[in-house]
Amino acid sequence: MEILTWTYLLVGVSFAIYIGIAIWTRAGSTKEFYVAGGGVSPLANGMATAADWMSAASFISMAGLISFAGYDGSVYLMGWTGGYVLLALLLAPYLRKFGKFTVPDFVGDRYYSKTAKIVAVICALFISFTYVAGQMRGVGIVFSRYLEVPIEWGVVIGMCIVFFYAVLGGMKGITYTQVAQYCVLIFAYMVPAIFISMQLTGNPIPQLGLGGELEEGTYLLDKLDGVLADLGFAEYTSGRKSMTDIFMITLALMVGTAGLPHVIVRFFTVPRVKDARLSAGYALAFIAILYTTAPAVAAFGIYNAINSTSEKRMDELPTWIATWQKTDLIQVEDKNGDGKVQYLPDPETNELNIDRDIMVLASPEIAKLPNWVVGLVAAGAMAAALSTAAGLLLVISTSVSRDLVKTYNPGISEKKELRIARIAAAGAVILAGYFGVNPPGFVAQVVAFAFGLAAASFFPVIIMGIFSSRINKEGAIAGMLTGLVFTLGYIIYFKFISPELNTSEHWWFGISPEGIGSLGMILNFLICILVSSLTPPPPQDVQEMIEEIRIPRGAGKPTH
Amino acid sequence: MPSQPKINTKRYWRKNLQTLLILLFFWFLVSFGFGILWVEELNQIRLGGFKLGFWFAQQGSIYAFVVLIFIYVYRMNRLDKEFDVNEE
């Protein structure tokens, strides 16, 4: 069968499964809509969390980023996994014991203040919206590349699917759909990786293949270091960024991961505190399968790409180059007219431009795998984008219906609240779809900073809300605002106001805008502690609540 | 004088914090330590086809994170029982 037929078939079947699951598990109450009734098993929740977490960017772009960044790409690998240790140890069990539905719920109760809650809602909405627009864009790109429909139609189809199961199923529908999506995406990621690892190193396990020997007897990584150095690039296994910057970016990504509302809310769906701890472990184990494979895919990809093009004659290039040239993701131009391709660091003389997304999307073709594998990768990329989009839409709808409407209208009936949640989800889908079709220039850039903002705003106040009984509402509000404003200000200054100054000599302490969330977080902690020590301690009932969330016993089902 | 359960809870919390500190020390060591701060030094050592520092940054730290969470789960479940604060 043709590639296009396979793609339609596999993407179509996977969509039918998601919709089937959504109908079968649709939510009837607000509790089911917000936290799936609190009855999800730790294993299923771990899998759903993994799918929720791994976005279009993890699936499509991460390996390619590492291909071109080499050692520097480690920031994403460590950053996006290490945050789960913080989540499991410092947040998940206590927030589960707290037993309500959202992060702003916790902030509002712990800091006995509507203002604190509203600040938290604004942070949650801001983070989720920037992130979800990127997902819809990812859906559109996959549709347009594989199914050959215009990108706008791709986004609209994606919107309809997400709309259907997020609005109908709520958290319950999303959770079980995400379990299916995890299976699809991990299978789609591993199959090409295993084949390529066997072809290059003879080892079927990509994680080991990365450290394996090529046919000629040299180690893959040594060979890659040598090839890149000969061409004038930095060695693959050594870094170009400063150590300070690597450190700060990794920290911002880790802490940001732990502070993302759509990840935290997943731990409200399990029955007990011990299940929350365990499901964080499962989630990371499932994520680690993809995250330890990605660096292998990255190294295989860049090695294959250079090996099959550099100093090769223009008319003898492999066929995948021509296929992907049509999409502009690869550009080859014989600038010096010698009839051969030169891949060089200097943009003036370099004749080969490879988009980072190629490393995953074209990997089945580079490895000459059968057509169904290409269709599978398309279905996997869709699963990654849709599962993350759905999780984020739920956070947005919950923030509106529960954290905003219910805070001001405590007497609202459950039926009405559920209806508002669904309308909010629908509104969010349409808005996200609009940004997916007409991406304002800043969306793509801002997505990368959502982590820094989550790190600088949420993380410190949640941690201290649990581990300190002295931190009060004045401290929390001042801390959140300082972290948010500082981080946002630094990013806006270097990215939008004076992008020409965005170089290491102008950065504070050599920290790039990507890593500044770490400094924002530290400021948040300091301001929070300072302001709290100058103002009266929290009231007695809050002190008791803190004592209460620290011990597991008595965590019933989530309450209203 | 604080009642018995209150003292128990305090001791449980102290043990919990101890566990957290030990585990977070290793969390820091494998990622920020081996993968970033001492990566150059460790790269002098080889692990098959890998330089050790590079391996920690792109593989080893992730495995260690998974193991750390499962140690935490095991240890906390025992602590919960020991201090009689476990759930059914």
Automatic annotation (TrEMBL), chain B:
The keyword Transmembrane helix applies. InterPro entries: Na_symporter_ssu. It holds the Pfam family DUF4212. Keywords: Membrane, Transmembrane, Transmembrane helix. Residues 10-86 form the Sodium symporter small subunit domain. The chain crosses the membrane at residues 20-40, 52-74. It comes from the Bacteria. This is Putative solute:sodium symporter small subunit.
